[in-house]
Structure to design on (407 residues):
């Protein structure tokens, strides 16, 4: 494969954050950096973080183990980290655009539609990653002749893009993945529970992720009510959601439900290793239910624990019922209850499914995903030429474009 020597990944500007997409960005940055010598990840910050770049807290937050260059653009006088839910900063988008334009790397990559639009409006080829259906506000992006390519996570999404008129040759489907090294060394269930102070005698059923209803939390609570002798642990969630779900559990007198709240990525493996069964109860009422590719799914597979998940289309491209997991009907507490008790009552079945899931996840790593995307980028770049306008004139023109068209 021809190698890309320089690459800038323009994040939404909100790293570090509890938002799941920032974890994916950080892990992909780590994988890209191992393959592209001149790699940079760009996010927002202040003058202090601009000078320090990546620090130990950043590496620990995302459980990163390979160094890469992190550029924190100083858009705040003083930045309070982590960034809050829903953070957006239009000045960051513009500054990040101009920074990448000035640096002129071989490849500019982003998951942020606004940044992609800014670059494309200036005639700059950009690779855009998008995990949702296209709506009217993004048609100008996918119709731009300067769009280098569109990366997505599900074949169903790719098919919808083609129906919207996107050239199939510009689409790359690359599933979500996991960082296998983050789960080493392996931990025994007893050692993990001892470390966390969790009960050792009860079956422990664990969910990791955010706590919105569309994640299947109402189903999980109903299952917990049906299985009072099982312990249910929920790891993750914004503080407001933790309080809300805790209040619901208390009102229903669910003494077997424990909410841990957000933990650093470096602590998550210990919780997963402590479990008997890992849950993925995504609701079919979610508008993205048929296209979601949850990061937690691949993390679950990496720790050799049996999984019970909703039988949704994209999830079924990774998990197969009674092959590497048990699949339950979405939003059906009885179906989840039966699957969980089957795994607890039949340890040999649970172990067989867990072992198979571990074997299957070997092909879903961030490194392999990065290889796929970079090869796609090489192929697409071969069809684009570098702008011939001298850099100073291009910068002036770019600044005028951003300030006049996008105030």
């Amino acid at each position: 494969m021809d190698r890309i020597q320089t690459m800038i990944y323009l994040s939404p500007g909100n790293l570090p954050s509890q938002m799941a997409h920032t974890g994916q960005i950080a892990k992909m940055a780590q994988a890209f950096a191992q393959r592209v010598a001149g790699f940079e990840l760009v996010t927002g910050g202040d003058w202090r973080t601009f000078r320090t770049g990546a620090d130990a807290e950043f590496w620990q937050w995302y459980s990163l183990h390979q160094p890469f260059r992190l550029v924190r653009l100083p858009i705040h006088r003083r930045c309070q980290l982590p960034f809050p839910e829903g953070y957006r900063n239009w000045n960051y988008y513009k500054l990040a655009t101009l920074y990448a334009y000035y640096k002129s790397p071989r490849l500019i990559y982003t998951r942020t539609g606004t940044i992609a639009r800014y670059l494309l409006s200036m005639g700059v080829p950009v690779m855009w990653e998008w995990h949702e259906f296209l709506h009217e506000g993004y048609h100008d992006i996918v119709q731009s002749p300067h769009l280098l390519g569109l990366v997505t996570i599900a074949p169903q999404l790719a098919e919808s893009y083609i129906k919207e008129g996107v050239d199939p040759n510009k689409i790359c489907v690359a599933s979500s993945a996991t960082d296998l090294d983050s789960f080493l060394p392996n931990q025994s269930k007893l050692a993990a529970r001892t470390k966390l102070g969790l009960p050792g005698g009860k079956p422990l059923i664990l969910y990791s992720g955010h706590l919105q209803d569309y994640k299947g939390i109402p189903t999980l609570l109903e299952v917990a009510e049906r299985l009072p002798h099982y312990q249910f642990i929920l790891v993750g969630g914004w503080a407001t959601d933790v309080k809300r779900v805790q209040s619901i559990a208390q009102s229903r007198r669910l003494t077997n439900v424990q909410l841990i709240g957000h933990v650093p990525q470096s602590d998550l493996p210990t919780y997963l290793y402590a479990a008997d069964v890992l849950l993925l109860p995504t609701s079919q009422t979610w508008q993205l239910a048929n296209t979601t590719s949850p990061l937690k799914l691949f993390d679950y597979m990496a720790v050799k624990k049996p999984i019970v998940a909703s039988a949704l289309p994209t999830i079924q491209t990774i998990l197969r019922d009674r092959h590497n997991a048990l699949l339950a009907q979405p939003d059906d507490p009885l179906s989840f209850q039966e699957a969980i008790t089957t795994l607890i009552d039949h340890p040999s079945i649970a172990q067989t499914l867990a072992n198979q899931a571990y074997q299957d996840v070997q092909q879903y790593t961030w490194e392999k995903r990065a290889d796929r995307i970079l090869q796609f980028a090489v192929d697409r770049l071969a069809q684009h030429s570098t702008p011939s306008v001298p850099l100073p004139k291009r910068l002036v023109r770019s600044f005028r474009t951003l300030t006049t068209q996008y105030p």
Summary: The chain is about 40% helix and 15% strand.
